[in-house]
Amino acid sequence: MARILQLDTAVAELVNDGDTVAMEGFTHLIPMTAGHEIIRAGRRNLTLCRMTPDLIYDQLIGAGCARKLVFSWGGNPGVGSLHRFRDAIQNSWPVPLEIEEHSHAGMANRYVAGASGLPFAVLRGYAGTDLPTHTDTISTVRCPFTGEELAAVAALNPDVGVIHAQRADRAGNVQFWGITGVQKEAVLASARSLVTVEEVVDELPEQPGAVVLPSWAVTAVAEVPGGSHPSYAQGYSERDNTYYQDWDAISRDRERFRQWLDVEIHGSERSPR
Amino acid sequence: MSDELSEAPAASEFTSDEMMTVAASRSLHDGAVCFVGIGLPSTAANLARRTHAPDLVLIYESGTLGTKPQRLPLSIGDGVLAETADSVVGVPEIFNYWLQPGRVDVGFLGGAQVDRYGNINTTVIGEDYDDPKVRLPGAGGAPEIATSCGEVLIVMRHSPRAFVSGVDFITSVGHGRDGRARAELGLPGRGPVKVITDLGVLQPEERTNELTLTGVAPGVEVEQVRAATGWPLRVAEELGAQQPPTDRELRILRELKATLGNGESS
C-alpha cells in the first residue's frame, strides 16, 4: 500500500547516500521537483540511472550528488550539451563522475529485466559498435535454440525509482498517460519507489489507455503540482522551452550555476513553479 | 536560418540547408515506415508528408507510432507527437516490438562525425574514451536504428571535422571499419544507403561500401566537397546534379519551420 507523504518526508525516508536512484520520464513527466528535493537534502555518492540525463541530472551532478551516471543519451534536448555533466566528466568538477554508457534499447531492456525479476535481458543490439568495450554490463549470450549470438545486458535494479505522473487517488493508485517512456519499468525494477503527482483525487476518472501502477506496487506518493516543470504533464501543463534554452547559459558557467543553486534550490522551500 | 517568411521566395533563392532538407525529404518514399530523429531528419520527414509522401508513417523513439504532427515537434517527446499518433507505446516496446523485428523501412540519423564507411560517432571526440577531447551526448536510439531498419539515411552538414577518415568511436555502425562489418556480423538492415549534406550526396560504392560522391547541390563544385571531406573522396563516374527546391517545396518547408517557433536541435 502506497503512503501519501510530503515530498521532503518521502525523499528523506526513501533516498539515502550511496543509493542507486532512477529518475525516469521521457521528455514528458520528468520528476524535476523531486530531483531538487534530493539536492536540497544534500544526498551524496548516488549512482544516478536515467536514459536521458538532461536537466534534472545536470543539476544533481553539478550539485555534487552523484558518483556515477548510468545513461544512454546525455544532452539538453533541442538545445545542445549538458555542461555540468561535461564539466564533471572532463574536469571532475565538483567531484569525479564515473559513467556507464548504453544505447536506449539497452537501457530500456535493462529495466525490463529488472522489472521482470530476471538477471539479464537479450536484444539485437550494440553489434559493430564500440560501446561494449567500455561498458561491462553489456555482454553476449548464445541462443540455446538456434545458436545465434545476441547482446545481453545486466538487469538494472535501483534502490529507489522516482517518477512523476498525472494523478493518484488517496489509496495511492497511480494513473499516467501520453508518452510514458520507461517509467513503469523503472518503478517495478526498483526496491522502493516514489511517485510525485499533479494531484491526488478522491476518485480516479476512467481514462482509456491510462497506465496504472496499483497502490501495492508503489512505496510512496507525493502531491507535487507542476512537479515536472520545465518538462510537461499532458493534460496539465506545457513544456517550458525557454527554461531549457536558458539553462544552457546558466550551466555553462560554474559561478552562475552556483548562484542558481543558492537561489532556486537552497533559497526556497520548494523550487519555483 | 534567416528566412523572411513575409516574402514569397523565388525558386533560385534558397539556402544550402534548405536544399539539404528538401533532398532528404525526397529520399523518403510514400508509404514507407520511418524512424525519425529530431532536428533535420524530423523536418525532412514532415516536409515529405506534406508534399510527395502523404502516407509516410512516422515513428519517434519516445513511443509515438504513426504520428501526424500539425507543427514541427520541439523535442523527441513533444506533446504534439503523442496527441496526433495512432498509438503511444512505452520505450521498451518501441525498440523491442517495432524496431528490432524489422518493421521499420527507413532510419533517419544525424551525427557529430561520420566516416568513409558510414559509421557514425555521437559519443566522444578524441581517441581516449576516458579522457575525451569533447564529450558528446551518446548513443540514444541510434545504434539499433542503424542495424535494424531496412535502410539508413544520414543527414549532416559537410565539414572536414565531421567527415573523417575513421570515426573516433563507433556509436552506430555503418559498414564497419573496413566496410565489411554488416555481412560479417549478419546485421539485418542494409545500413547507410545515402548521406545527404549541404554540399551534395554520398553513397556507398557497391563493392567496397566506401562513401563516394554521387551528386552535388546546385552551384557546388566537386573540389569544394573534396575540401570539406577528411579522406580522399572518390567521385562517381556519373555525377548527378540535385534539382533545386521547387517553389512549392520551399513554401511548405518555410511554413513548416515557422511552426517550430523555437531553436531546432541538430
From TrEMBL, chain A:
Gene Ontology molecular functions: CoA-transferase activity
SUPFAM superfamilies from the UniProt entry: NagB/RpiA/CoA transferase-like
Alphabetized UniProt keyword annotations: Transferase
One Pfam family hit: CoA_trans
Gene3D superfamilies: 3.30.30.40, Glutaconate Coenzyme A-transferase
Entry-linked SMART domains: CoA_trans
InterPro entries given in the database record: CoA_trans_fam_I, NagB/RpiA_transferase-like
Family, per entry: Belongs to the 3-oxoacid CoA-transferase subunit B family.
Record's protein name: 3-oxoadipate--succinyl-CoA transferase
UniProtKB/TrEMBL annotation, chain B:
GO molecular function, one term: CoA-transferase activity
Pfam families given in the database record: CoA_trans
Keywords: Transferase
The organism's place on the tree of life at top rank: Bacteria
Matches recorded under InterPro entries: CoA_trans_fam_I, NagB/RpiA_transferase-like
Keyword DNA damage listed: no
Signal sequence interval, chain numbering: none
UniProt record similarity statement: Belongs to the 3-oxoacid CoA-transferase subunit B family.
Protein known as: 3-oxoadipate--succinyl-CoA transferase
Species in which this protein is naturally found: Actinopolyspora erythraea
